[in-house]
Amino acid sequence: MARLPLAPSPAQRERETKRTDRIWIRDPIAVLADGAERGVVVEGGRIVELVGKNAEPAHPVQTIFDAGRHVVTPGLVNTHHHFFQTMTRAHPKAINKSLWPWIEALYPIWTRHVNADNFRLAARLSVTELLLSGCTCASDHHYMFPTGLEHALDIEAEEAAAVGLRMTLSRGALDVVGDKAGDDSQAVAPGGATQDTDVILADCERVISRYHDRSNGAMTRVALAPCAPFDVSMRLMRETAALADRHDCRLHTHLVETKQEADFAHAKHGMSAVDYLEECGWLSNRTWLAHGIHFDNAEVAKLGRHGVGICHCPTSNMVLASGICRTKELEAAGSPVGLGVDGSASNDNSNLMEAVRHALMIGRLRYDAASVTHRDALRWATEGSARCLGRDDLGAIAIGKQADLAFWSLDDLRFSGAGDPIAALVLCGAHAADRVMVKGEWRVEDGAPVGVDVARLRHEHHQASRAFLEAL
């Protein structure tokens, strides 16, 4: 017998009523949009009007939010993360190391201790942290599926829905065991971290069928994300590309985070890492890559021609001394450039606004002070990241876009004396949003995540993380 739909609760009815109201976000200090000096009007979860200088809304509004204390930006979009790694922040076995010693130290600890219970806390903490940093949409690249954690992406979807964060659930995978691989392999994953290739492909189909929503304004979408070409099989790379094409979803993987990986591609496959992607059917505009630091000029040009996106992870790249992404050349060649916080054990936090500032600083170190501006860094975290995820409904304050907005106060001492409010967010180091709106609903109010007991979350997560220190 078909189950009758449940009647909406009073709280649900109230939320739906609020979403259909026309809300004028009135007179902000500044807005990261043209022609919106007096704010924006939101209705039904979308931006329906920009209110220009000396203007009023064209149609009646039911609610006015006084934004006189706020600078308003699009919600930030995080294109690469590893939620489970919040359990091993600043782990004594992994600090002060480059990527390979770092990951070799942590893999056995993750494999031994990550389970469904502590993963749920890790996901809950990560989505809450991201919201507080002004992030409204995130992609988590989850590739660890030890026994008991087969439904990790379901947990992520539940936790993101609970706080109202949009998610691209990136179904990662490992199918090459590092300790049994040949001498010419760089794979480091222990057996407990890997899965059978057919099991992976079957679960990719399951996750897509359950969560991949291609509609405008979707709260969940799915990407297929083998961890990295050096620790997954060519068969998995090729078959995920075919699945992504069949189901119209995105593809994601790590690529050339280190010079060692670039050299490995030539030694193992007799071709560049980008040519290897092409061999696997990945060279298309449905693909975005994490890090992408060590591309040569020919690879940059080829990626740009095919519209392959690049997620720049400035904070973790600096922590692990991996190098500096060629953001300006990649963007000029035609690649969308977005930002990611990366893993919370290589960052060691989940603050996307902090990554915006780091992208500006490291970009100027690579180029010069005039070539990378605060607006470039903000664009990468909004429009660029949205393009990487294939979201043309996000990333900008414009009519028809989703009402995903971050509100920043300039009340802290760090902002006193700032002349340009938009530049101040980046140059003076904004790191916590005062308010966040997702799909027209408040998800952070007065600096606090709606419906989250932060003190309890902090206590439970910290207690669970103690198990990860047992290796000491």
UniProtKB/TrEMBL annotation:
Q: Which domain of life is it from?
A: Bacteria
Q: Name one Pfam family in it.
A: Amidohydro_1
Q: Which InterPro entries match?
A: Amidohydro-rel (IPR006680), Metal-dep_hydrolase_composite (IPR011059), Metal_Hydrolase (IPR032466), MTA/SAH_deaminase (IPR050287)
Q: EC number(s) for this protein?
A: 3.5.4.32
Task: Identify its protein family.
Answer: Belongs to the metallo-dependent hydrolases superfamily. ATZ/TRZ family.
Q: Where is the Amidohydrolase-related domain?
A: 71-442
Q: Which SUPFAM superfamilies match?
A: Composite domain of metallo-dependent hydrolases, Metallo-dependent hydrolases
Name of this chain's protein: 8-oxoguanine deaminase
This entry's Gene Ontology molecular function terms read: 8-oxoguanine deaminase activity
Checking Gene3D superfamilies in the record gives: Metal-dependent hydrolases (3.20.20.140), Urease, subunit C, domain 1 (2.30.40.10)
